[in-house]
Amino acid sequence: MTKQVAVILAGCGVYDGSEIYETTLTLLRLDQLGIGYHCFAPNIEQHHVVNHLTQEVVEGEQRNVLQESARLARGEISPLEDLVADSFDAVIVPGGFGVAKNLSDFASASNNMQVLEALKESLVGFRQEAKPIGLMCISPVLVPRLLGDGIAVTVGNDPAVSGAISAMGGLHRSCVVEDIVVDLEHRVVTTPAYMLATRISEAATGIFKLVDRVAEMMD
């Protein structure tokens, strides 16, 4: 496998970490295309822990984002600060509320959000070297803060989230669940995934298109 993609995770589980289906579908498609990958996550405490059965916050419990992300990566994962852009051809960030709670504070701050400094530092090299960057579900909200103004992205058609993206200087494009938005100039590919998906097959169609386009842009 000559091509390598970095995959950035934010925990394990849709409500307080990375979305499990989105992550798995991303890794599956990369493997199907013969592209190598390695996962990274910040070595920090989660914003909070959510009981995924009741969707309620578990008071008094704390978990580590890197340790939880290791569940998805089957232990093959490194701290985010170890990510070096020169070692990879592209980077992909699956969604899940961990993006809005652990990688940033978007869940509470909306368009006043701050992004985790380690994430900014990790993606600088990809931006400077014009390497493809793929983001899905809620993670495109990070783009204005991470990569700059005027970059076209999609989260589907959510008015509150798309409005926040615009308020931060981004360009939101409406998109159906099975499709992608590509900003060729800035080398950014996005798809709504579970911002819109009601079935795993719907999410898979858009995610596979995203991975395929990222792969094409690596050539």
UniProtKB/TrEMBL annotation:
<comment type="function">
    <text>Displays glyoxalase activity, catalyzing the conversion of glyoxal to glycolate.</text>
</comment>
<keyword id="KW-0456">Lyase</keyword>
<dbReference type="InterPro" id="IPR026041">
    <property type="entry name" value="ElbB"/>
</dbReference>
<dbReference type="GO" id="GO:0016829">
    <property type="term" value="F:lyase activity"/>
</dbReference>
<comment type="similarity">
    <text>Belongs to the peptidase C56 family.</text>
</comment>
<dbReference type="InterPro" id="IPR029062">
    <property type="entry name" value="Class_I_gatase-like"/>
</dbReference>
<protein>
    <recommendedName>
        <fullName>Glyoxalase</fullName>
    </recommendedName>
</protein>
